[in-house]
Specification:
- InterPro entries: ArsR-like_HTH, Metal_resp_DNA-bind_regulator, Tscrpt_reg_PadR_N, WH-like_DNA-bd_sf, WH_DNA-bd_sf.
- The protein has about 110 residues and is of the alpha+beta class.
- The chain has four helices and three strands; from the N terminus they run H-E-H-H-E-E-H.
- It has a three-stranded antiparallel beta sheet with strand order 1-3-2.
- Strand 2 and strand 3 form a beta hairpin.
- It is globular and about 60 Å long.
């Protein structure tokens, strides 16, 4: 079994939640989102994030706007819709339950 593949699948499983969480405080453009994920040690490449942002937008969870940039072309800023905020709230509750369950299971002492 390939451990790197398993690790990648685990990261993919939480990527939507992490992206929505990045956008809960303020709108951001793709490079800012990638930088925030990178700083948290969740390495994601542009080829992964663009389709995901598009899907989240098409699902009504994100909106975007264009803003002029002083250092290049206009930037597309993403933000949460009301539906996206509700979705994030649901994911947050689910994450807490799942995280608690995984911690409970993985930290159990084996009895001899």
């Amino acid at each position: 079994m390939n451990i790197e593949n398993t690790k990648a699948q685990m990261r993919k499983g939480v990527l939507e939640f992490c992206i929505l969480s990045v956008l809960k405080k303020q709108d951001a453009y793709t490079s800012e989102i990638l930088e925030t994920l990178k700083n948290a040690k969740l390495l994601v490449v542009e080829g992964t994030i663009y389709p995901l942002l598009t899907r989240l937008k098409n699902d009504g969870l994100l909106t975007y706007r264009w803003e002029e940039s002083t250092s290049g072309p206009p930037r597309k800023y993403y933000g949460l819709t009301d539906e996206g905020q509700n979705f994030l709230n649901e994911l947050d509750g689910t994450w807490t339950e799942l995280s608690n369950a995984v911690n409970l299971i993985t930290n159990q002492k084996t009895e001899s």
